[in-house]
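dumping the sequnces here before i forget
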Amino acid sequence: MLMRESIEEDVLLDIRDLETHFYGEESVTRALGGISFQVKKGETLGVVGESGCGKSVTALSILRLLPKLSARTVGGEIRFHGRDILELSDREMRKIRGDQIAMIFQEPMTSLNPVYTVGHQIAEAVQIHTKASRSVAMEKAEEMLRLVRIADPERRVNNYPHELSGGMRQRAMIAIALACSPELLIADEPTTALDVTIQAQILRLIVDLKERTGTAVMFITHDLGVVAETCQRVIVMYAGRIVEQANVIDLFARPAHPYTQGLMRSVPDRRRGRQRRLPEIPGIVPNLREPIVGCSFAPRCPFAIDICRDKTPILRDVGSSHAAACWRAEEVMGV
Amino acid sequence: MAGFIFRRLVSTIAVMAMVGIFVFLLLRLAPGDPAAMIAGRSATAEMIAGIREKLGLNDPMPVQFIRWVRDMLGGDFGTSIFAGRPVLELISQRLEPTLSLSILTMILSVTVGVSFGILAAWRTGGLVDRLLAAFSALGYSVPVFVIGYFFIYFFAFRMHWLPVQGYVPIEGGFRPWFVHLILPTVALGFGYIAFIARVTRASMLEVLSEDYMRTAAAKGASSYAMLFHHALKNAGVPILTVIGISFAYLIGGVVLTETVFNIPGIGRLVVDAINNRDYPIIQSVLILTSGLYVLINLTVDLAYTLIDPRIRY
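..and the predicted 3d for all of it:
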């Protein structure tokens, strides 16, 4: 018992068998098919996968921000500091959102409210979670803008979102998210919608702020390059499940799932030159409205054998703190 | 902004000039000779000719028009053919009931309509939403005189809760004034409540699915703050537009309502004037209401800038 507690002491978020479904007119989409992972205090965890694999659904499930009418978390636990947040009342959940767990989104252009100033929107987060007065909160907003390195913060606090560029808006979003010093920051593709040069700046900013504040970061992306630069551990998701989990060095050195390998091959590499066409993973993502028999990646997998098509592989250890959901992981790693 | 207001005022002059010409011609082109009407049935041709001369009806049209405009700018809107009293005096006597009814109706329609719409959007498909669908079908399709007579029959005649008809000036006490206005206000407001609620609902639904609403939720904002702070202001522009339109349409509704509830307001004045071909009254009311429309439009356009910082003139 003592052992277990000491192990779990540094676990901030512990997700077990999380299942989230989307409800359509006549069908149910199993967006998350029972995933389990942990986020430790102060670490940066990458969550990687193609669009539609369940990355964002995982994030929204954690914050309980799924669309009310069409989606529901139907099973599992999300333990934050040991408490299952799926059991909390709406009121208790609101106290966690923005204060202990904050989130930044993919679309900086539309994620800020157009009719309020940036300063107002940062100050609002402060005022929701502290007893700060309006003027104290506005001072805090200015300080946050300085922290996210927006030039001229005393002027920018009074700007409306449409007066800022995309990069500045994403900085403002980060300022909102970090205003209450959260323990966990969920960044859902924060750089996808930005220019390449701005992407690098925003990434560096997030990494820097993480170092300074000690916030744990869950970094959702489809870009393995981003993962390599920012994360310590990585989860690879496919069709609503985790297919591989490893620390970043092991993952890049010895990927144990054919899907991870496929993703890595489709990252452009300057050393390989321009002429070659970028390899892609053949086939399409499975339809999650229908039950999947066997491994969900089998139809696209070069390693697939009979067992892959019949039995669903579970996530199993293939090295120290390296796990993969593949019947032939050892052979895959050997390739 | 100052430039915009200036340009709008200039264009207002142009609009009012067009209205003026139209209203002026309306009188001249309409069948029936005002001079003959004033003179009465038993008048001789000489009497009619005398009246024509006195009214200046023999002058060329442009001369008559300029004289008419000049008089109006000087505050002289002419004299009623039937009552023989200045039109402006007649109108100002009738102003209070009409203003009371209009303002109460707008307050009722905006508060009830907007809250109804917000609640329906908040819980789409819920009880309030379905209630609104039923209510707005009724509000749109049942005309104010049907609702009015039904209200009179039920609330006044059968239940004796409220007075049947009539109007008590506010100097006669707030309570009797208000009690007499309840039924007409609700009857007239019915359609506007439905209209404003539908637009509010649609506008709110659109806003509620915006990315920034998710950002607000991720901050930990309460449902109340989400709806009223984040969503309503963004949904405000279309809502404000329909409130402006409602205000403009209100004047038509007021005429019917005043007739049904026997309220001595401008609506009744106009109906009587039309029946009597009392042209100076018709003209003046047309000009004044046109001016009011233009003013409401300008106010609504200016109010947009208070709601949405992206709107700049």
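The interface with chain A takes residues 124-125, 210-212, 214-222, 225, 230, 233-234, 307-310 of chain B (CB under 8 Å).
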